[in-house]
Amino acid sequence: MASVDIRDVKKAFGSHAVIHGVSVGIDDGEFVVLVGPSGCGKSTLLRMIAGLENITAGEIRIGDRVVNQLPPKARDVAMVFQNYALYPHMTVAANMGFSMQLRGTPKAEIEKRVARAAEILGLAPLLERFPRQLSGGQRQRVAMGRAIVRDPQVFLFDEPLSNLDAKLRVAMRTEIKALHQRLKTTTVYVTHDQIEAMTMADKIVVMHDGIVEQIGEPLDLYDRPANLFVAGFIGSPAMNFMKGRLESGRFVADGGAAVPVANGAAAKSGRATLGFRPEHIAVADDGIETRVVVVEPTGSETQVVVESGGQEIVCVFRERIAAQPGETLRIRPNPQLVHLFDETSGQRLN
Amino acid sequence: MPEAVLREPAAPLKPPTLLSRLMVNRDWLGFWFMLPAAAFLVLFLAYPLALGIAYSFTDAKIGQDIGSANFIGIENYQWLIGEFDCKWEWAAFWSRLFGGDFGALGALCKIVGDDQFHLAVFNTLFYTIVASVLKFAIGLYLAVLLNNHLPFRAVIRAIVLVPFIVPTVLSAIAFWWIFDPQFSIVSWSAKQMGLATENINFLGEPWNARWSAIFANVWRGVPFIAITLLAGLQTVPPSLYEASTIDGASRWQMFRYITYPLLTPIIAVVMTFSVLFTFTDFQLIKVLTNGGPAGSTELMATLSFNRAILGGQRIGEGAAISTAMIPFLLACILISWFGLQRRKWQQGEAND
């Protein structure tokens, strides 16, 4: 096990720069998730850690070694690919033992370690099967088994769950998390799914257009997003935003709605963007007057889309709301839990 | 009342006619759909093959139809194969074989048979095995090379196909010139570079002629194998190479453990075709050496033609030589049939 230190790393394909200087420190045994929309450079960063892509500038350390010039096999990392990349002509056991076979590990030792990994992942009855004879979830487990038999310094996961169906994805999420808690191997996990990031990570790195937008623990990102991008990316349904101006402890939206604000925002004035999460809205008689557009009850909660001043606002209520589309609903965001962002730079103000 | 209308007794259905039943019968329709293809196969493949086999049991001369020819049983084959009364002495056999003394093989082995035919069988096997092995090795190497990121890759691939596109007779004539005893460019170059003092007699010496013919055949056959294997290489997902890189495989190990095993199904197909085409090769030998010198490059196909049409005009004998190729070809097909069977790892769903 080892820490991973990424310092001011840049990547360009020809003249096209895709990563513009990224620095992330990953502690020994930490589970770090790189999350961001497609094309943000998260997979490229992971592949640079693995050694599958050259590092254009900057430095990556694994443990106390600079690995920039090291070939992948000398970096002692293991990677799980999105399409699993299992060798189709090898049995599960051979797939898992391949790296040790290449290193000339004695057969008995390979068998012992494969058996142990298979035990951990529940693959023991499948060892003699070929990848094509396995289900998606089983293949996923074999890919993980291939990584853990090597007992590497770092696990790298490249969107490992995106080929699975929704239910299996949730189950495998738990399994990977449990595996990490058991093995305590430093893990870098790439996903575009913020729910995966929130549920699995010790630390999340939000990336966007080749830069790091924010690094922090999952709930920190949720509670105090550093900028508009993170605020909109983390949380589902996404945060509501309104443009307007701050006036003596109130936020007046361009559409006319006035929202009381607290928690350090009251002292500010001037133009800003207000953000509030759907789950931080209450029905209140003195709230903003809105018109109900859609009501979506899920049983445990009610999601209501309302419209005010030409802007749609998504609300999530724990209680059941008997509103009908077209009716008027007065709502008020919790003043303690609102987020204020600079209108031009998008940086957090409060 | 609508119900009353519905309950009115319907006219009893007529039993379907035989024709209308046949028109929906899958087996009957299938038979008709198969008929055109079957007719083609029978007319252009099965009939000539059967006719050839039938001729091989007659003493027909050219121009004689099968009905008027005398049936002579397996006499043609008896003459061709001869009587094996061999006292094999391997040392003597090999020394004579590589001494190029094939006429004497009969004396060694006391075969009372057709020496020309025996020589043609040996030549055909030698030509097929050596050329196929070379074509496979070079074709695979070229395919792996072309699969890399090269500049002008599309152009290079197109150029590789050229020997395959050129008509065989044309390339054979070109090689005829390259191997010419007086004007050969190879001899000339060798002399200029000081590698040889006089012209190389490519087509005049038995072993020179064999290797020259094999060289021409390899030159012509490599593109087919290279391009087919290249297509196979491109179906190997790049992520497998990435995974094996991280697993610590060297380039050779990647080829040995990933590329080669994944390519075996397509290798089986392409090599079967290649061996069949080489075994039955006719054009190249006909133009390049016409079987010479002294029958040392005569293949079964050219010998059959020479006996049946040119020299002897003995259709029956030529047909027997052709028919004698069938067991070799069947053996080759059987080997590849076992090689072509879906391997266990190919069964089931694809990876993604």
Distance between the termini of chain A: 39 Å
Query: What share of the residues of chain B does DSSP label as strand, in percent?
Result: under 5%
Class derived from helix and strand content of chain B: mainly alpha
Q: What Rg of chain A is obtained from the alpha carbons, in whole angstroms?
A: 24 Å
Q: What would you say this structure looks like, in words?
A:
The complex is a heterodimer of chains A (350) and B (352). The mean pLDDT of chain A is 88. The two termini of chain A are 39 Å apart. Chain A is 25% helix and 35% strand. Chain A has 350 residues and is α+β, with helices and mostly antiparallel strands. Chain B is an all-alpha fold. Chain B folds into two domains: 82-113, no CATH class; 114-346, Orthogonal Bundle (MetI-like fold), CATH 1.10.3720.10. In chain B, 68% of the residues lie in helices and 0% in strands. In chain B, helix 12 (206-233) crosses helix 14 and helix 14 runs antiparallel to helix 17 (315-340). The longest helix of chain B has 32 residues, at 115-146.
Key attributes of the depicted protein:
heterodimer; A: 350 residues; alpha+beta; 6-stranded mixed beta sheet; 9 helices; 25% helix; 35% strand; B: 352 residues; mainly alpha; MetI-like fold; 17 helices; 68% helix
Summarize the structure.
The complex is a heterodimer of chains A (350) and B (352). With 350 residues, chain A is α+β, with helices and mostly antiparallel strands.
